[in-house]
Amino acid sequence: MIRVLIVDDQALVRDGFRMILELDGEIEVVGEAHDGESALAEIDRTGPDLVLMDIRMPGMDGLEATRRLMRRNDAPRVLVLTTYDADANVVEAMRAGASGFLLKDVRKGQLVRAVHQAAAGDSVIDPAITARLIERLMGERRRPEAEPALGLLSARELEVLTLMAKGLTNAELADRLFVSESTVKTHVARILAKLELRDRVQAVIFAYEVGLAQSQG
C-alpha cells in the first residue's frame, strides 16, 4: 500500500483527492493537514510514503514545509499542488527536493498515476513543461560555483544531462542516442549519484543553474 498524506487549506480539495485516491486499492490516505505546520506534525504521526502538498496556504506554506521536510533523512516523497503551471514557488519546491508538481484540476486517472509514479521514485512532471517552466522562471539565476561538478560527468553523461534539460523523455533520449531505455536509465542514475541530486527534476534545475542548458526559444 502507498500511504498518502493530503495537505491543503481547503477541505473540499482534500475531500476530493481523498475520494479519488481511496478508489485505488493500492493507495491508503493516512491523514490530512490544513497548513505546513500541521502537515509536519501529521507526517511524524502517520509516516506517509508520499505527501500531496499545497503550496499556497496561510501560516507555514507548502514551500517552507517542503524545505523543512527534505532536511530529514527519512523524508517521504512530495508532490506539490498548484493552481497554475507558472507558479514560481514550484521551482523552489522542486529545488528543495519535491518530486514534481500537479495542477489542482488534474484528472482522476492522472492523479492516481502520479501517486504511483512518485512512490516508485519517478519524477511527476511532463519533462517539456519542466524545462519551459524552469527556463521562464529562473531567468539569469546561475550558480557558477557549481560548474566544477560537471567535471565529474563523462562526455556521454553531459550529453544526457543536456538533453534532459531540453525536456526529452527516456524514450526520446534512447532514440536520439541510439541506445536502449535501460541504458538511458543507467546514465541518469549515474548523473544523479555523481551530482548528489535526488531525481531528474533536480538534474534539470542544476543544468539551468550552471548554464549547461541553453534557451530553446
In a nutshell, what does this entry contain?
The protein has 217 residues and is of the alpha/beta class. It is 49% helix and 13% strand.
Can you tell me about this structure?
This protein is of the alpha/beta class and 217 residues long. It has helices at 11-21, 36-46, 62-69, 88-96, 108-119, 127-138, 155-165, 170-177, 181-195, 200-209; strands at residues 2-7, 27-33, 50-54, 77-82, 100-103. The model has no long low-confidence stretch (mean pLDDT 87).
Overview features:
about 220 residues, Arc Repressor Mutant, subunit A, five-stranded parallel sheet, 10 helices, Rossmann fold
What's the topology here?
Elements: E1 2-7, H1 11-21, E2 27-33, H2 36-46, E3 50-54, H3 62-69, E4 77-82, H4 88-96, E5 100-103, H5 108-119, H6 127-138, H7 155-165, H8 170-177, H9 181-195, H10 200-209
Parallel strand pairs: 1-2, 1-3, 3-4, 4-5
